[in-house]
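Record pair follows.
FIRST:
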Amino acid sequence: MPEMNAFTTLVIGGSVGGLAAAHELRAVGAEVAVYERSVGKTSARGAGIVMQPETEALLSRLGVPAQSVSVELHERQQLHTHGKAARYEAPQLMTAWDTLYRVLREPLAGMCYRLDSTLTRVHVDGHDVTAEFSDGYTARGNFLVGADGIGSAARKLLDSATRPMYAGYVAWRGLEPESALPGDLLDLLSGRFTFFTSSGMQMLCYLVPGANGEREEGSRRINWVWYVNVAEPNLPKLLTGRSGRHFAHFLPPGELLPETVEQVAHQADASLPRAFAELIRLSDVFIQPVLDLPPRRMVADHAALIGDAAGTVRPHTASGTSKAFGDAAGLATALRGWTLTQPLPAAELENWEARRLDRLLRLSEIGFELAERSTLGARVGSQFFTSD
């Protein structure tokens, strides 16, 4: 049972980063409520996740072995437009957003988790934090955690000067059942992290668990991402859905305009190894522009930002999810032992912020370097998908 003076935390954002924060804060005695802006079931934005130490550590504390929610890879292979693939041994565990979400959400079934909750205002009065939402609902607690991603409403309210910036390239994505792939293509990709690099583009793919966490052969999914340079003036057309709606951060499967679908297929045929071009033609393609959010601050009065709400790293670091988990674990440690009879542990929070911002900056630098190797987002790199 929580202590009489235990603090209550309002977590804004109910994706895996927000769920990680809920687990970590409950572990140090806090009462937690989560508020998610999605109207219905939250959707997987990206799907594939590389298992990293921070993620594995939380799963272990929950009694979930990382292997039980992952597909194990044994090799890496680099494809070429002509010639044989180059392969080398590289064991790795791969999971998926929906798999990870499920194992984090189920133990929190009795916790307040409110959907359709778009944050519009935050007010702090002493130890009390009030969060107001667009539907008129009001929640009160003692600390607020913004874990609501790159489009964070919490960040806009706490740090309005910071804005995401387009990095100069997009990620075309696909997530398909392995059973939908022809046998020769599946044989090439199964058990391997497969990639291809050329001027202004990079593509990679690997298998992840099935839609319900299945890891058996025949029940898994193939996750792929194709990074391609696209000049910013050409984004509006690519991010326009079939309904005419313009998407800012993520255009979901089934929304690409028919002419864009055909353009993607033609560009794949012209630019990629045959196996990757075939995979793209078999997929329901969706798109995410790659955005940079420079880190500025993570701590405000009785509030903190974690994950992409605080700042982004390029996807090539495979650290987006693990960074959010590391942020959550460190924040909980900084708040450990705090009760409402005491002042907020400002020194501990400042030290946490300094350590995590340093980590974020170093990861950001690595991400820029990895992108530059493929001339992604660079002026010298080839450009694709230009508008008529």
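SECOND:
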Amino acid sequence: MRTSRPARVGQYTALLAYLVFLAFPFLWLVSTAFKPPRELGSLHPTWIPKDPTLANFRQAFDEQPLLHAALNSLLAALAAAVIAVLIATPMAYVVARRRTRLAKAVTGWVVVSQAFPFVLLIIPLFLVLKNLRLINSVPGLVLVYVVWALPFALWMLAGYVRAVPPELEEAAAVDGAGRVRTMVSVTAPLLAPGIVATGLFAFITAWNEFFFALVLLKTPEKQTLPVVLTHFIGAEGVADLGPLAAAAFLATLPSLVVFALIQRRITGGMLTGAVKS
């Protein structure tokens, strides 16, 4: 069905407006990060700094342990991504290949789990981690991130598994390969792009997460980067705008780069899971 020219113009105009709406906060953040104090307090702000400076970046590193916080975020995000993928991959294979009530129940759990807000989960999670003596620890935070990332990782990987022709597994079975051997030697290599995309998505989610880290981590040396960014806001709610923008810009870069690399694979996994062969 062909779309009329006015309709296409309207669609592209709406898309452009949406892109501008999404890009505005990031572009303003970059502009603020390079502005000197006198421009930050100007009554007539400009997009492009008239006298760009790196002083905000130097001040941000001097005031807060950004590198140490970034290392905590990196360790937590990497560990959560790896563990979530290792658990979700065999689960996704079972859900995609087995048409049982258990598989349907797992699929329902994936959908329902995404409807729960953070606030309802934090108290039970806090009590569980307290009993495990994992409060105020990076391993405890990793455990929370794994639980939170598993539903989406399972759903995404199940879409990739469904895209693998069952005939390949049947041929391996004819050759004498067991189910585990078939999954490891035949299915897993074909799932490599999906596994990488799922892992990177879990990494981005954990890297940007703030609420759980704020509640579960109390010691400054164990806090993650999103939590440390709040330290640029004073007790009276006044933000040190220049260093805050510089630190936020640096914290945003890794997730933007990773998402730019995997956005096509993420979209492909979603579309694959929505199409039945």
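COMMENT: The CA atoms of residues 86 and 214 lie 27 Å apart.
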